[in-house]
């Protein structure tokens, strides 16, 4: 019995040592993965903490269809509650600043709407890269360009949402790439953002359907003109027939007089 116990103990020690060796080999990989996740989380927190946030008070009057005119207006419209991740006003538009952009609206957006976007050329490494858009549970994307660009999306969400988010892939400052002294981490430049709801889209067919009623009005004019023209020929024709009849009677009287002998 003692011999069997000794063999079992040696086997267990060897097995545990081997298992520990295998676990030790996994430790560096786990450390690297944990460090990567920690850095990623810290970067996200750092990016969001450095994003400029603007609370909108007394914004200018505008409809959602008129939208945000970044290159025309130096402030935001009244339908915007707050904006995060956008830089200051410039005469050509507004740069995104940082990785995350969030437009929060004063009221929930329509469940279905058309999103029209207009951009100036993107900056640096963001050219040719994918910019993501999120509205509630709806997601889409577009490619940033080194030329002015317009994009349109049909947005449909399953639940009400009051914000439109953009994720810029590689924000960078001009100073970092030797293109100037500007330290802002910019990416894409907005020129216009407008929203057209389904309710607005349904009004257009109703207006178009009324056009035939307006066009049909001139059709009645020829009917009136025909009535007027038909009366005039009748009056003209009756006058000469009476005169001719009187002349014939006079001729008959003249012909009777020479017959007397």
On the 0 to 100 scale, the average pLDDT is 75
Say which CATH homologous superfamily of the domain at 50-207 is assigned.
Galactose-binding lectin
Helix content: 40-55%
> What kind of sheet is the major sheet?
6 strands, antiparallel
- Helices and strands: which structural class? alpha+beta
Order of helices and strands: HEEEEEEEEEEEHHH
How many alpha or pi helices? 4
| CATH C-level name of the domain at 50-207 | Mainly Beta
Written overview of the protein:
The chain is α+β, with helices and mostly antiparallel strands and 261 residues long. It has a domain at 50-207: Sandwich (Jelly Rolls). The protein contains four helices and eleven strands, in the order αβββββββββββααα. The chain has helices spanning 2-50, 198-209, 211-215, 217-256, and strands spanning 53-55, 68-69, 80-84, 94-97, 100-105, 112-120, 130-135, 138-143, 149-156, 163-167, 186-197. It has a six-stranded antiparallel β-sheet, with no helix packed on it. Strands 2, 4, 6, 9 and 11 form a five-stranded antiparallel β-sheet that branches. It is globular, with a radius of gyration of 43 Å. The model is unreliable at 26-43, 200-217, 219-230 and 251-255 (pLDDT under 50).
Topology:
Blueprint: H1 2-50, E1 53-55, E2 68-69, E3 80-84, E4 94-97, E5 100-105, E6 112-120, E7 130-135, E8 138-143, E9 149-156, E10 163-167, E11 186-197, H2 198-209, H3 211-215, H4 217-256
Antiparallel strand pairs: 1-3, 2-11, 3-5, 4-11, 5-10, 6-9, 6-11, 7-8, 7-10
């Amino acid at each position: 019995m003692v011999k069997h116990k000794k063999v079992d103990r040696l086997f267990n020690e060897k097995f545990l040592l081997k298992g520990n060796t295998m676990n030790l080999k996994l430790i560096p990989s786990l450390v690297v993965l944990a460090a990567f996740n920690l850095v990623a989380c810290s970067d996200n927190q750092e990016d969001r903490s450095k994003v400029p946030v603007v609370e909108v008070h007394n914004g200018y009057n505008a409809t959602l269809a008129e939208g945000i005119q970044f290159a025309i207006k130096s402030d935001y419209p009244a339908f915007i509650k707050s904006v995060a991740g956008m830089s200051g006003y410039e005469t050509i538009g507004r740069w995104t600043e940082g990785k995350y952009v969030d437009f929060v609206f004063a009221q929930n957006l329509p469940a279905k709407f058309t999103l029209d976007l207009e951009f100036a050329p993107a900056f640096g490494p963001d050219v040719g890269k994918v910019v993501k858009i999120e509205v509630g549970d709806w997601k889409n994307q577009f490619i940033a360009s080194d030329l002015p660009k317009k994009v349109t999306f049909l947005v449909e969400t399953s639940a009400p949402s009051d914000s439109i988010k953009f994720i810029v892939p590689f924000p960078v400052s001009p100073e970092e790439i030797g293109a100037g002294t500007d330290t802002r981490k910019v990416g894409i430049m907005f020129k216009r953002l407008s929203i057209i709801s389904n309710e607005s889209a349904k009004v257009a067919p109703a207006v178009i359907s009324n056009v035939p009623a307006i066009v049909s009005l001139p059709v009645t004019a020829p009917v009136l003109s025909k009535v007027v023209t038909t009366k005039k020929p009748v009056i003209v024709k009756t006058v000469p027939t009476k005169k001719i009849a009187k002349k014939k009677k006079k001729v008959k009287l003249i012909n009777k007089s020479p017959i007397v002998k």
